[in-house]
Design a protein that fits this description.
about 450 residues, mainly alpha, 22 helices, globular
Length: about 450
Amino acid sequence: MDLAIVGYVACALVILLLAIRVPIAFAIGSVAVGAIFIVFAFRTGTFQPDRAMWTTLSLAFSSSFDLVHSYDLSMIPLFIALGHIAYKAGITTEIYEAARVWLARLPGGVAIASIAGCGGFSAISGSSIACASTMGRICTPEMLRLNYDPRLATASVAAGGTLGSLIPPSVLFIIYGIFTETSISKLFLAGILPGLLSLIGYALVVVFWVKRSPEIAPVSNIVFTGKQKLRAAIGTWPAVLLFIMVVGGIYGGIFTATEAAALSLLFATLLGIARGKIRLREVVPLLRDTMVTTGAIFFIAACAKIFVALIALTGLSGSLVGLLDASDIGPLTFLLMVSLIYILLGMFLDPIGIMVLTLPLMIPMVESYDMNLIWFGVVIVKLLEIGLITPPVGLNVFVLAGVLEERKVDIGTIFAGVMRFLVSDLIVLILLIAIPAISLIIPLSM
């Protein structure tokens, strides 16, 4: 029996299950266990189910157990909890309030402030969906109240929310680093400039859009004094300190990314309690929400690790690399193919699902081209970021539409506004591919 054929059939079956809307963890896990069982059952040429059953269970449990007990994976619940605590403590909203005060008189100033607020939230939470959900409750109703066009009021937050994928700390970078065995600290640092570049691109979209159609963003009549602006700027010190603690601590080699997550969470919790915005009994529900989100991510990752074991067992990655060498495809053509695959998958699947499904197959091919895995990780995360706002199933768009309770905006309106931001995303993606130094200059200077 050709083991590579078993691998190809397993991949096709996973795609089929995903097409009929089976949750990705169940699709990957069940197919991987079934295929591993078949491989071991026919290993001697005759069907031996009893012998294969225990070997399959042992491989499946050992693979998932090793992943769940990974030291690096402990960052995920810490950073997710940090996002919940920081929002409850008012740390994340202070960035938006400061940007709103300073940019209020500019055309589209509140939309740009919303994007800046999303960037600040991303620098604390590490989750794009959490960013879109939280900032959608704060920023979009304010813009609608100021008579902003619903397309701009929603799309700026939906696009800005995707910054949580690139700006450290990023859950996607953590998962990428674990599955590719690359430095998560360097991945965090590599995402800084691309994240800022994306933020600036979104702000420019707002500027050009409002200049072309001034009626979509009426200029606010509110005038803030210099004292109010100064107070608003000073109010952002907790968020700035948290970002410095994570990025500066990692860059300076003071502590690891996991230690940075733990210290940041402790600081945010103590600050929230000291300010009187968090009571001790309120911490438990926040941790419960963290456990739910973390459990879902861990379950997907554990099932994906079993799938990785299947790929190693069948030699599927080696077969794909052989096909790639035989086809004589150049690096740029390969990157174009990867981009198209990720953008297409992003229209239907969530980013974590796409990553755990494709990385085990993609990374051996990337290494065959001798590409830098840190740079490639930034490109992949940017592609996943684009998928969050790509129709027909842009998760950030649906999350945002769901949190707008009082003034509903239909999905079509949000997607109509998002298309302008997608143009900016594609330009940034091209720059990241063409100029790897944008991603590598900071981590290589460590």
